[in-house]
């Protein structure tokens, strides 16, 4: 199959996104009428979608069952849940449809629409087929499938090399990090693509009570908004300062990349607490797989003091992404690491 054919084939698109952009079935939110639910549920199941929630337009609020959504909680549910795509399947358009699409796109979520005669004013759309259903798909941007395939290939190759380096370096780092009696590898739940929770790995650079002490240090946060950053952080161990400056603490994340939780290049994954404070526009930075490095890290991150500026860089990366961007960022990252300009 040619590259052009690969980019245009919706079946290939679904396959690639299911295997390289997520782990397990893609999560989909359904907006329809109750008499169409069983047919759509079966079609989505056969197409390896996981139905995370449904909103029946014709069902009174008082008759809602568990798992069903209402007009009042639809957007809030989407913001706080793992939603990869939305399918709107209706016999005719209703006033809210344009607002729904706009709201979902703000969060970076692709919306598939099957409504006879309906047209949403967007320059970013394509005709496709989802679970055998002809749809018009809307998204803030559509990435080339061939680029996504190549990105995953580079991720796997890079992760394998990185894990070899991680193992070799670990022989020296393990006993040094464990001097205070704690584990060498720090694990934490982080939020990945579209709200997925995954186990995040780093070589431990802080004392064991770092998370508890973080609450006491919030007034010294130098980052305005939904991220914590502090100069001369007292929670960092002596060996931790070295591995952060040299970025050696990031090496275990190559395992996250190999698993598919992360990519070599992307946006930095937030903690669960940070994610709970996200606005719809901020969630868009999670519409792409998180990365070990990214545009923010190579754009003078020590000078960036507002989280909104981080979000702006992340959205710029996602909106204009090409595989060549990843290669440029990786080369810049090597330069940053070589000159010892890692995290403080």
From TrEMBL:
Localization per record: Membrane
InterPro entries per UniProt: Bact_transf, EPS_sugar_tfrase
Transmembrane segments: 153-177
Start and end residues of each Bacterial sugar transferase domain: 151-337
Predominant place of localization: membrane
One Pfam family linked to the record: Bac_transf
This protein's UniProt keywords: Membrane, Transferase, Transmembrane, Transmembrane helix
GO molecular function: phosphotransferase activity, for other substituted phosphate groups
Protein name per its UniProtKB record: Exopolysaccharide biosynthesis polyprenyl glycosylphosphotransferase
């Amino acid at each position: 199959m040619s590259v052009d054919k690969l980019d245009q084939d919706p079946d290939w698109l679904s396959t690639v996104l299911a295997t390289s952009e997520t782990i397990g079935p893609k999560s989909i939110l359904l907006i329809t009428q109750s008499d169409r639910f069983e047919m759509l549920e079966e079609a989505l199941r056969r197409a390896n979608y996981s139905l995370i929630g449904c909103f029946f337009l014709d069902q009174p609020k008082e008759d809602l069952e568990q798992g069903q959504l209402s007009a009042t909680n639809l957007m809030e549910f989407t913001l706080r849940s793992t939603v990869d795509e939305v399918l709107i399947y209706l016999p005719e358009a209703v006033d809210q449809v344009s607002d729904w699409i706009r709201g979902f796109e703000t969060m970076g979520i692709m919306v598939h629409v099957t409504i006879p005669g309906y047209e949403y004013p967007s320059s970013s759309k394509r005709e496709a087929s989802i679970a055998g259903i002809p749809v018009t798909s809307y998204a803030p941007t559509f990435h080339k499938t061939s680029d996504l395939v190549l990105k995953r290939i580079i991720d796997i190759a890079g992760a394998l090399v990185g894990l070899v380096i991680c193992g070799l370096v670990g022989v020296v780092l393990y006993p040094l990090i464990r001097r205070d009696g704690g584990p060498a590898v720090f694990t934490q739940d982080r939020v990945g693509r579209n709200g997925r929770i995954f186990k995040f790995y780093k070589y431990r650079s802080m004392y064991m009570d770092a998370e508890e002490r973080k609450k006491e240090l919030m007034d010294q946060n130098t980052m305005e908004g939904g991220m914590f950053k502090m100069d001369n952080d007292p929670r960092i161990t002596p060996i931790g300062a070295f591995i952060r400056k040299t970025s050696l603490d990031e090496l275990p994340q190559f395992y996250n990349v190999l698993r598919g939780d992360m990519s070599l290049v992307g946006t930095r994954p937030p903690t669960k607490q940070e994610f709970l404070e996200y606005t719809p526009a901020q969630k868009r930075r999670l519409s792409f797989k998180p990365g070990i490095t990214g545009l923010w890290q190579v754009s003078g991150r020590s000078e960036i003091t507002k989280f909104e500026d981080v979000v702006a860089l992340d959205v710029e990366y996602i909106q204009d992404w090409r595989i060549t961007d990843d290669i440029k960022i990786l080369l810049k990252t090597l330069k940053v690491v070589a000159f010892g300009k890692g995290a403080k």
